[in-house]
Specification:
Helix content: 40-55%
Shape: globular
Distance between the termini: 16 Å
Strand order of the largest sheet: 3-2-1-4-5
Number of helices: 8
Radius of gyration: 18 Å
Strand content: 15-25%
């Protein structure tokens, strides 16, 4: 029988760090680490799409954002599908993914977004977060989301551990998995552990 596994993500503008884990704290195995791109190669869609959209007339800005949304969702779908196929080949059954949630809502009116530089970053984060969530849901995964700053506490409490103990265990994985094992990989692992919670 395939062993249960989960995916965890740490998001960036245009890409994400992905970690797949199986087991449980104390006997945790990292099955995969990967950087996945969330936009197609080349410059057909700019990475900082809302920054670029702010320089355009309203109709062109809307078209660019729509194109970026479609491209990021398709790119993420292909990447997640490829990851899941690889994990299935290792006899792992992935049923859930942990993804950071947003810290503030994005106005539905594009013009309101484009009037505020801080909102550019919020909207870009939301765009790529939605792409990853949509890709995971489209592949049949349950998606669990919390704010990044809350993920360690949530993951630890899910497994009945103190946050410091969980962090120590995840830090210690570097000995077995090697580099890179930085903040991206550790945070993605915490999200994966949240998704791999007992009783799922």
């Amino acid at each position: 029988m395939a062993a249960p596994a989960a995916l965890g993500f740490r998001l960036h503008t245009g890409w994400a760090a992905l970690v797949a884990v199986t087991g449980e704290p104390g006997r945790l195995e990292v099955s995969l680490r990967r950087r996945i791109e969330l936009l197609p190669p080349g410059d057909s869609v700019p990475r900082f799409v809302y920054h670029e959209a702010s320089k355009l007339p309203a109709s062109q800005a809307a078209e660019l954002v729509q194109r970026a949304e479609a491209a990021s969702q398709e790119t993420a779908r292909i990447a997640v599908k490829d990851v899941l196929a690889h994990l299935r080949s290792l006899d792992l059954a992935v049923t859930a993914a942990g993804i950071p949630s947003g810290s503030r809502p994005v106005p539905p009116d594009l013009s309101a977004v484009l009037r505020s530089h801080p909102m550019f970053h919020t909207a870009e984060g939301a765009l790529f977060r939605q792409a990853v969530a949509s890709a995971c849901k489209g592949c049949g995964l349950a998606v669990i989301s919390v704010r990044e700053r809350e993920v360690w506490l949530n993951a630890a409490s899910t497994w009945g551990l103190k946050e410091a103990r969980l962090r120590q265990q995840v830090d210690g994985l570097r000995k077995s998995v090697g580099a890179p094992w930085g903040t991206d990989q550790k945070t993605a692992t915490a999200f994966a552990l949240l998704a791999l919670r007992p009783g799922q």
